[in-house]
Amino acid sequence: MRNLVAVLAALTGLALASGPALAAPVQKAAPAAAPVATKSLAPASAHNWNQTIVRTPRDSYLLGNPDGQIKLVEYVSYTCPHCAHFTQESDAQLRLGMIGPGKGSIEVRNFVRDPVDLTVALLTHCVPTKAFWPTHVMFLTRQPDWIGLEATATNAQRQRWTTGPLASRTRAIASDFKFYDMIATRGIDRPAADRCLADEALATRLAAATKEAEEKDYVQGTPSFVLNGLPLAGTASWAALKPQIEARMN
């Protein structure tokens, strides 16, 4: 993995540059009382936790029951092949076994490694909150379709990705990697995408959050995980993480 300090410095510079109750008894001739909603009577499993997602104050996204017994944080980089592989293996199992029944939540935090990663991160933040998860999964599961350009790009393409204001860099990347076409399937047209790709404040915050993750949660690579507040080591795969989660579920 490339020198993270240098990457963070470059990214920061890039950002700066540029939820029926019974009705009450009534007289026979009286109309029935309206049903009263009673959320507290519904078991956690009755809630559609797979559709419950919030954006947090730290620009991360949390899917599931925040009061569940399992609180999983994933640090992800969109250009990380291991992250793509983890998502392909784990997404359905996590949503069925942990998220759906309300046993816990998973919070996705960006750990930005390079300009292409940053570009995808800005686009995933561009969609409405309720659309984040399918967009996030789309970019990772389709990573094999687009990642190859990183190795085959021309010098001219690389120049466009790394020089000039933030907006020109990210737009060049979005164009070359066909990200505009991908995000359009989520209802984001090109003008809207361009506005998101020019979000210097968000780019700066994501770079700062990456540095904070390295210092506070000891993140050195991706994917990395924090489970119930404890940073985990040696769990960069679903095969390694799954037993850790199951051991903490009733």
TrEMBL record:
Residues 1-23 form the signal peptide. It holds the Pfam family Thioredoxin_4. Residues 60-246 form the Thioredoxin-like fold domain. Keywords: Signal. Gene3D superfamilies: 1.10.40.110, Glutaredoxin. It comes from the Bacteria. This is Thioredoxin-like fold domain-containing protein.
